[in-house]
Design a protein that fits this description.
globular; seven-stranded antiparallel sheet
Amino acid sequence: MRCSSRHIPSLLAMVTLAVGCAPPDPLPHRNTTAVSEVTPLPVAGRSTVYAPSGMVATSQPLASAAALEILRQGGNAFDAAVAASAVLSLVEPHMTGLGGDLFALFWSSREGRLVGLDASGRAGARMTPERIRADGFEGVPYQGPGSVTVPGAVAGWEALLDRYGSFPLPRVLQPAIQLAEDGFPVSPIIARQWAAEEHLLLQDPGATDTYLVEGERAPRAGEWFRNPDLATSLRQIADQGAAAMYGGPLGRRIVEGLEPMGGYLTLDDMQAMEPEWVTPISTDYKGWTVWEMPPAVQGIAALQMLEILEPFDLQAMGHNSPEYLHHLIEAKKIAFADLAYVADREYLEFPVTELLDPGYLATRRDLLDPSRAAERQEPGAFATSTETIYLAIADGEGNMVSFIHSIYEYFGSGIVIPGTGFVLQNRGAGFTMDAGSPNQVSPGKRPFHTLIPGFVTRNGEPLLAFGVMGGSMQPQGHVQVVLNMVEFGMDPQQAIDAARFRHRGGLQVAIENATPGLVARLEAMGHDVTPWENVAFGGGQMVMKLDQGWAGASDARKDGLAIGH
């Protein structure tokens, strides 16, 4: 949104007020003198943001500003979330957009409960193993037209506003429409990531015309960028609602554009898109009830990790000590092995809650060797790796929204249907061709999803809306952020900023700013500690409810901003 001159001073004042005043830390600090070797923080200079009436935390300042303006105009957290999501679709196009899916976990103050929204699309009618093999592929294509599934995000926007919003869709899309039409200066981290994908964008004429300056290169940091085609698509959606995408002119254009390229979607597939209200799943960790979305997403892995770790005295080990990191890494391996069971919930062979059964998890916990790294773990026996935006918003009514929206890989499928202004996701890559798997590709099925918004309640009341982006980093990041707060008393910004590990498979693990001594001790346990400098550790956002007011944090690993009013 290009602010008029009368808005600029008020926005600057809001930023100054939001970041310039911090009450005492709302979390009790614990004794962490047992820390023997703490890895340094990867970033510095940000503090937790506090505000009395509402809070916004997104991965790009223009999206945060748009959401905050909606709140100040009288909109609620749901209106602001959709406004921010639409702006991020423009300013962070390699991460998210109209061609992607979204999930939300949110506290409805009106209903006094936590609600889940699954707005993920399904495989097209032509996406069968036989057709894929006939097209010359051994598996579902990772990118390109054959990786595209129905984009569910626009349907999710409309569903969220219809049931919980206070502003109409055209009003909340207006900031993104104006920015797309007028343009904006590209932010630094996004510019670097955009430039790294020039090779992909050059492979598709629509992507080249939409995202490369003069058809040759990505925009540089501070360089002005416009996307009038996206403005046109957003106007169609504002005028016609989600129907423009699902059977209307925009959806028809997508299907007709994909068909000659080898895409698997039909117009009927687009028309059949229906978001689903779902019941979140949870586990209790030392009085904090941590909530995740049910399958086909990987949130169950975060809950299993917490359950496996709870009996251990992590605080005594010390934050990011070798012993502490070893236990978390090994718990991750065990939990991720069980993701072999996770698929579209309509195709699961048993209730997902069985994976959280205490007796079952006790047998899984027994696999954790406290002194030696396991190269791999197998899924448990039963009696019967991406990119994303995440945002968190709270309003004066007490609503809290944990919201994640993605096109999967950087620039998704790499395919932009000319004239639409947005890239289509490559979520089909989440399927397998294995006949024995519940996640085998099949028409009308949801693929396995990496997207997981997080939420925490205490004593039945909302506490945190939080998330960490980045494919398989997401469950690992959720657990690390929660433990930072529960075990070590960190405030929201400290919990987001603290150095992270990312297990990469087998014995390989990367650790931010790892000291030589830490590396040596982990390698003595059998871990292969790989260089961390080019590893994505995800970007996180958080909003926390205080006794009075709100706290917010935004990750310096991204260009983001937490701001309140």
